[in-house]
Amino acid sequence: xxxxxxxxxxxxxxxxxxxxxxxxxxxxxxxxxxxxxxxxxxxxxxxxxxxxxxxxxxxxxxxxxxxxxxxxxxxxxxxxxxxxxxxxxxxxxxxxxxxxxxxxxxxxxxxxxxxxxxxxxxxxxxxxxxxxxxxxxxxxxxxxxxxxxxxxxxxxxxxxxxxxxxxxxxxxxxxxxxxxxxxxxxxxxxxxxxxxxxxxxxxxxxxxxxxxxxxxxxxxxxxxxxxxxxxxxxxxxxxxxxxxxxxxxxxxxxxxxxxxxxxxxxxxxxxxxxxxxxxxxxxxxxxxxxxxxxxxxxxxxxxxxxxxxxxxxxxxxxxxxxxxxxxxxxxxxxxxxxxxxxxxxxxxxxxxxxxxxxxxxxxxxxxxxxxxxxxxxxxxxxxxxxxxxxxxxxxxxxxxxxxxxxxxxxxxxxxxxxxxxxxxxxxxxxxxxxxxxxxxxxxxxxxxxxxxxxxxxxxxxxxxxxxxxxxxxxxxxxxxxxxxxxxxxxxxxxxxxxxxxxxxxxxxxxxxxxxxxxxxxxxxxxxxxxxxxxxxxxxxxxxxxxxxxxxxxxxxxxxxxxxxxxxxxxxxxxxxxxxxxxxxxxxxxxxxxxxxxxxxxxxxxxxxxxxxxxxxxxxxxxxxxxxxxxxxxxxxxxxxxxx
Length: 643
What we know:
Elements: E1 2-6, E2 10-14, H1 24-30, E3 47-49, E4 54-55, E5 62-66, E6 77-84, H2 97-101, E7 132-141, E8 144-150, E9 158-164, E10 167-168, E11 172-174, H3 180-192, E12 211-213, E13 216-221, E14 235-236, H4 237-240, H5 243-253, H6 256-275, E15 286-288, E16 302-303, E17 306-307, E18 327-330, H7 335-349, H8 354-373, H9 380-396, H10 403-414, H11 445-456, H12 462-484, E19 495-497, E20 509-512, E21 515-518, H13 534-551, H14 554-567, E22 605-606, E23 612-613, H15 622-625, H16 629-640
Parallel strand pairs: 4-11, 12-18
Antiparallel strand pairs: 1-2, 3-5, 5-8, 6-7, 6-9, 7-8, 9-10, 9-11, 12-13, 14-15, 15-18, 16-17, 19-21, 20-21, 22-23
Helix pairs in contact: 3-6, 3-16, 5-6, 5-16, 7-8, 7-9, 8-9, 9-10, 9-11, 11-12, 11-13, 13-14, 13-16
């Protein structure tokens, strides 16, 4: 038995695994850093964590306190106080006498510490008193011991800090415009991801040349432009197409000052997407430099429903078209990309006006006809994406989709839902119940397809409406929210497992019957993919906010906000995962991050015993610190449905 410590808070017990390809030595190498506190931030010092962006006036508002080295000596309840920023509550003086004799209005400015309060208990309304007093209560959880408090009933707009005897939170706002800061940051983020042009102060002109097909070096395509992904030079459609959804939300629902900018950004990205479809209707998947690693879409090419792992060939090229030093277009057929294109082009056609509206709809219909002519392997992601494409194209007025097709796809998807009488229920499975449906980037696509079907409300689908609504409700209530009770931050799960990989090396919890569940992605697998789960959680939040808006479920919207607050700093590390807002962040990975201002990080990984882990060293690691488009477009969707 080997015991590894995560700071002083989270003991982790791992067993040696006979006959396992993962040796104990590998475990110690991979998780050796868990035996010490992360060096960049001192987690032995007590600290308060809450959302660093802030709250709407009627938001749920929570704070967590971690005792660090004092943990075992602290009482079960600790008062906390809200003050305006800069208005610290009076504490016993630590200043030398000569300073205080000058009757200075300034606090002692050197080596300030947190001394005891002048008087206790402090009361609201007294001279030099706090604006609000709450209680932090000790909780013992599977993620360790800490204290939590709630201040939802404090609704006065302003800029504040939380404090207690042992520390201060980062500043935060309370006002009904607070989330507009994310809208501005997202537009900056997307503009800085533009490819093929100079972005002053961010990146030089790069990848302005054309590209040839990976199967025919004599066939060139004009595919400069569009958006990079994660600051890379490779332009994935499966990761960048959904930005049309988020930009469309801003164009229709965002602050009026941002709407035209959102439309302009949509136009920019869409020019590239329109170049990636052939006359026959096939949509190519991505453009990158160097030789593509073709792989197989059926096995190692896909990992946790994430295509494009180990893509290779991301090299900067010379910006000179057709001189032989060109990038490559990947021509392998990808059903996910094909139906994503249909879905998001149809959606864009409902936002655009004039030729861009008609062009988007025509190309969406062409791509749909090609997609239905090429059978796929029926994995749940493809079925869900095809249903989303069908509903969106029908809603936009595409001539090639019939309600009967939508009904067939809906029945096929509903058959994948697991409804249990005990334990978790309502989650989706893969075809033939081979495994639970899980996805790093698109964890809620089956449920999102059902939600979109309810929103569009096709008259001929009325007989299915009740069944679809019940399925969506079960997914949210009996799966997402039910499992969120398993942890103190109310974070819904990463996914369900039929045959958990390396079950002796990592912990899974019972979902129901033969299925098990984790909050975070598993660490060990035959094809490792140690990926942060910020996108998973934020899509859960987007789904719940949007469904809560449609079905008038305020508890779902509050649950969605708690997930957003997790990303904004209310987490066990007290770090904001969006670098353009907040005050304390993880260190982003790689030199590419100079080219990605206001970026979200891919976020928390789980330790083998399913506790949250975030790399905070300057020894950067891709597993939790890479910047990525995906969390941002789900965050924009989430906040778009909170009002």
